[in-house]
């Protein structure tokens, strides 16, 4: 376990950021940070068991920790075991951040980042990034720091806004290409899409780009099953709810078939990024999807349209079996956009949640 308490980690981050010239007005978003206190009880009541089978993954004396805060919208976590650090995006602030597991320090890894969103580590230990807006491309950061452009167009037209990304064992790169990064000015620059669809792409090791899924509206998170025989993809604009679809991966490692809905966020959950553990369970970022109730309620003399799903009940991580059965909910004080497994034993769950990054040791290990 790290030596810094969450409170000290936050203080170190604010101090380090100020020393680097990142005052609140410079994008630290310090006014959006808040004092977080971990639960003092074991087992942590934030880990809510929805099915007794999940108990084997819970560590009795592990609690949710806040390891970083002060971001505007934290996303795209990727863990690098060689250096013992986590990289993650702070999209509106146009930067990639670094959390050092040994010291607890948080620093700016890259700024500007071209509004980087999803990040991952390839099989050679290099950072692969979805540049979400402006450049709208997939890049790889070489060991010497050089940035190599892997893809920025398809059939002669610019990509939409690369979002989330995974690397398969054959070194192919799979990524989603929804519209979020060009829909407005918050996460980049508004731009007209050039692609006819919001695709899921496969980039082969020799650089050939193929649209492997073309019929999902704004695909978001994606991940493979441990044996890579299934591909899971979030449909952010699913009807009537956000969903996760599974596809059978053909023997060629490329073709997909048998599209099946595995998870339906019927509780108004805002499915986003997710990861799969070695047992095939899906650990999903969760929170309100922002949908409004059909009728207003009175609040302080005003007619207000509330959310259909309460953020305080939804924010966190929802865990499902491979068959889509809910197993657990890890409650967080902020909406979780994405997550990854890390730590020296690959059993520390890192959760990028709105303004902060949280961590929890579990008895599960990431599939990759």
UniProtKB/TrEMBL annotation:
Glycoprotein listed as a keyword: no
Binding residue positions for a divalent metal cation: 75, 220, 272
Needed co-factor(s): Zn(2+)
Gene Ontology MF terms: hydrolase activity; metal ion binding
Pfam families membership: SGL
Note on cofactor: Binds 1 divalent metal cation per subunit.
Record key words, sorted: Hydrolase, Metal-binding, Zinc
Chain residues that bind substrate: 163, 187
Residue numbers annotated as active site: 272
NCBIfam families tied to this protein: TAT_signal_seq (TIGR01409)
PANTHER family: LACTONASE DRP35, LIPOPROTEIN-RELATED
Protein's recorded name: Gluconolactonase
Organism: Piscinibacter gummiphilus
